[in-house]
Design brief:
Protein name: Large ribosomal subunit protein uL30
Keywords: Ribonucleoprotein, Ribosomal protein
Number of helices: 2
Helix content: 25-40%
Distance between the termini: 11 Å
Subunit structure: Part of the 50S ribosomal subunit.
Number of strands: 3
Structural class: alpha+beta
Low-confidence stretches: none
Order of helices and strands: EHEHE
GO molecular function: structural constituent of ribosome
Organism: Halomarinibacterium sedimenti
Oligomer: single chain
Length: 59
């Protein structure tokens, strides 16, 4: 499978607890932090839920 790079570009302050837990489960804690994941349906679903807080690059 292909890899995707996910970068946190907006803060999770004043966001719902669900969105904060989703960011944490993706491994994103700090602003500007980038993580790599396989583009499985589970990961893509999580990215879709917080798409307004992250940027995604296909690798």
């Amino acid at each position: 499978m292909a890899k995707i790079k996910i970068t946190k570009v907006r803060s999770d302050i004043n966001r719902t607890a669900t969105q904060k837990r989703t960011l944490a489960s993706l491994g994103l804690r700090k602003m500007g932090q980038t993580v790599e994941h396989e583009d499985t349906p589970t990961i893509l679903g999580m990215v879709k839920k917080v798409s307004h807080l992250v940027s995604v690059e296909t690798k």
